[in-house]
Write a structure and sequence with these properties.
By secondary structure, the chain is mainly α. Helix 1 packs across helix 2, helix 2 crosses helix 3 and helix 3 (83-98) crosses helix 5. It has eleven helices and four strands. The protein folds into two domains: 15-46 and 160-248, no CATH class; 62-156, no CATH class. The protein is elongated and about 100 Å long. The protein has helices at 31-64, 66-76, 83-98, 106-113, 117-123, 158-177, 185-190, 204-213, 215-219, 227-230, 237-242; strands at 128-132, 147-151, 192-196, 244-248.
Length: 273
């Protein structure tokens, strides 16, 4: 397809609507296989997303309160004992208070607010401090007496956590969809792939456009999914944005060989006139 000007005038053109002859007649991926492939991809992203969220949260804390973050790390890993643990507790108190750590005694909170960190640290001498990451809607586990639980997500803005998680998902879908393969791990398992209508490889920019188009489904409250049955080529909004279609990834079928003539059949000049 010939390049077009980004800002100049344009007209409707046949090349822009051209479909590669190699794609004509290709079997389309069914809605069920597309949905299952997406479910597999999302399942594969759960653990990496948690890891990214934890890492991003910890980086944010280390940047805003490095001393308190280091103190919490020493306490949790058991590297601080005796007097050193008391010093680490004093350094960690602002983080425990700001993060509204569960199990933090009321007397210790009041001491922190009054600026009496020594008294607050003394009150926590026999307490066990743990750092966790929890998801929205989770059931909070029971806390035993003497336990303090600091949940990292309380210290990081929700927008920052969402951005870190979304960035990982975007990188996954964009990287695996780009190129001739055009398939995430879920699509590969289901043997379907994304193909450009003109038969060219999907570029990184087009893959980015396609990923952005996923939000159309949420924007239409799921109504846009009707196109899986309404559109003759089962193209959703993100397919139309990027000029793609999702097809079954079948190996090319070799043309059938011509049948060999019988051994006693006349050949060439021996054929009757």
């Amino acid at each position: 397809m010939s390049p077009v000007s980004w800002f100049g005038p344009r007209v409707v053109s046949a090349p822009a609507l051209r479909v590669s002859t190699h794609l004509l007649g290709a079997p389309l991926a069914s809605p069920q296989r597309r949905a299952l492939a997406l479910a597999i991809d999302l399942a594969l992203l759960i653990l990496p997303s948690v890891a990214v969220a934890v890492f991003a949260s910890w980086l944010s804390i280390r940047a805003s309160e490095p001393r308190a973050a280091e103190a919490v790390l020493r306490i949790v890993t058991g590297r601080a004992e005796g007097d050193e643990r008391q010093r680490a507790l004093r350094d960690a108190l602002p983080l425990l208070a700001r993060g509204e750590a569960r199990g933090l005694p009321v007397a210790a909170r009041l001491a922190i607010e009054e600026g009496d960190v020594d008294r607050a640290a003394a009150l926590l001498r026999d307490h066990h401090v743990a750092v966790t990451v929890a998801f929205s809607g989770h059931k909070e586990p029971h806390l035993e007496p003497g336990q303090i639980r600091l949940e990292l997500q309380r210290l990081v803005p929700a927008k920052f956590r969402a951005l870190a998680t979304l960035g990982l998902a975007g990188a996954y879908f964009i990287f695996f969809t780009a190129g001739r393969r055009g398939a995430t791990l879920g699509k590969r398992l289901l043997r379907i792939r994304v193909a450009r209508l003109d038969g060219e490889p999907v570029s990184l920019f087009e893959s980015l456009e396609r990923f952005g188009g996923y939000f159309h489904v949420g924007g239409t409250i799921g109504i846009g999914l009707i196109d899986l049955w309404h559109d003759p080529d089962r193209r959703l909004a993100h397919d139309r944005i990027a000029g793609t279609v999702v097809i079954e990834d079948r190996p090319p079928v070799a043309p059938a060989a011509a049948p060999e003539p019988p051994a006693d059949a006349p050949v060439g000049d021996e054929a009757p006139g």
